[in-house]
Each structure stands twice: as structure tokens, then as C-alpha cells.
Amino acid sequence: MGCIIAEPRRVVQRGRLHRDGTWDYKDGPLLKRYMHLLGFIENTLRATIGPPARHVQRLLIDGEFRDYQLARAALKRKPRFQDVRTHLGGFDILAPDAASLLSSWEEIFLKRVYDFPILGPRPRILDLGANIGLSLLYFKRRHPQALITAFEADPEIFRYLERNIHANSAGDGVTLINRAVWDRDEELQFWSEGADGGRIESSDGKPTKTLQAVDIASALAGQEFDFIKMDIEGAEARVLPRCTDLLRTPKAVFIEYHSRPGEPEALSDILGQLRDNGFRVQLVPLYQNPTPFRPQVANGFDQQLNLFALR
Fold this sequence. Notes:
By secondary structure, this protein is of the alpha/beta class. The chain has 2 domains: about 1-60, no CATH class; about 115-310, 3-Layer(aba) Sandwich (Rossmann fold), CATH 3.40.50. The protein is about 30% helix and about 25% strand.
């Protein structure tokens, strides 16, 4: 009995079925044309409905992605800077802003930007700029025994951080500190955006409040960490040079780099310090500017990069 076998991504072949269930395969010109036709159809479908089809497939097989899409559908029309409470990934989350919650969740739990290499069962993690605690929940899910020291400058956002950690029973081994990290102990002016964009700011027309900042080198003297995450909205240019001792032990470091228009570019200094400490760095832009020679300013920054440093 002769027939044609067509298998996805395999050569279409002619064969003969024997009584013992085995096949003898032979190629033929007609079948080669048939194979090309199948390839054309497959490529056409991928080009026209590929992304939606992959989206549907992921909804069916990825529970975390499905939960996120359901939350996104429920929250995306919520007004900015109003409290929202939702359940995502098995966590009970309270946030001051729906848009920033969805954006941060996608970055942390779906894109997994903090997915550093395995560093043992009890990694020591330093989280600078913990915001409402999504990064800590991610760390605790991946490393339940992790020891985490987390700083958050904004006292209003710090309340959400405390609440989310305790409401999800994630406080074991976690130290939360409501202070801005800096290169000296002093009082600073802080602009609170109301979500995840608050930063140290001179009072040039923006309403600011006075916060107590701590010298990171003194505050963490003698402590060692395996992973450092730094997302402090532009303060990294002042803070990282004071991290000479802290950079001796980590195997991986994440820095969200921010560049402000009119201020000296600090990227080369940061990369140089990481290089001098034995790190190799991957740079990933947070957004693609279609006109790089015409910088676009977003939230006060003309460039934002994720720096992934590994040694």
C-alpha cells in the first residue's frame, strides 16, 4: 500500500507500509513540490497569524501569563494613582497605581529581568529601590530561604512594601529599611511620583519632601551579598562609587541606569567600575527611540537602560 506522509517541519516522503508496521521511504519530484507548498502555507500562516496564535497558545499553557492578562483586562482602565488590590501569581497585591503595577509585574514575573544564576539555596540579596515589593516576592518565590535586605526611600510607598510582604507571609529572612541610599548621610529633597517613579530631586517647581538618606557604605559596612539589584531612579551615579566593598562578593548585579538631560553622562563611569570589579555587562534599553539623534524625555530621563552584570 503506497501513501504520502506529511509531518510538520519534516520532509514529505512517499512510502510503502509493510505488514510488520515498518515503512520504506522514497523521495519523488511530486512530493518535493508538495513539500514546498506546505512550507509556503506554513510560512504564510506564521507571518499573518503567528503572533496572535502564539498569544493564544501561551494563554492556554502558561497560568502566570493567563493570570496577568486577566488582571490587565480588569485594571487597564483604572484611573492612575488610585489604590488597586488584586491577586496575581498567587499573591495578594495592594498597589498605589494600576499602570505601574502591571508594567512592573510583566517585567519581573513574565520577562524575569531578575532571573540571576542559581547562587545556592540561601542567596544574600540586596534590593535597592524595592518599591511595593514585587521584586522581593519574586526572589522569595524562587529562593524561599533567601536573606534579603531591601531599601525603599518613599515613606508612602514603603507602607505598600511592608503590607505586601507581610500579607503574603514573605517576611522570613527579610529586612525592610525606609531610607534613601546615597553617598553620605544627609537630608535630601524627594519627589514622590505616587507609584514607581519617585526620586531624589532638587525643588525646581516640583513638590518635594525632605527625606533622610544614608551613606550606603556605612549602612552596610561588613555585609556581603550574592546579588545586588539597584533601581534608584538616577541616584546610581552617586551611590555605585560608594559600593567598592559591596561589589567584591556578588556574582551578579542588576542596575537600571537613568540619564538626565543637561547632566553629565555617567554610563561610562558605571560600566568602568563594573569592569574593574571583574564583571561582564549586557545592556538592554527599556524602550527603543526611533530617532536617537532626537532624544525623547520620559519621566525626566532621556535614556534608561537595564545593565546585567555577571562574573
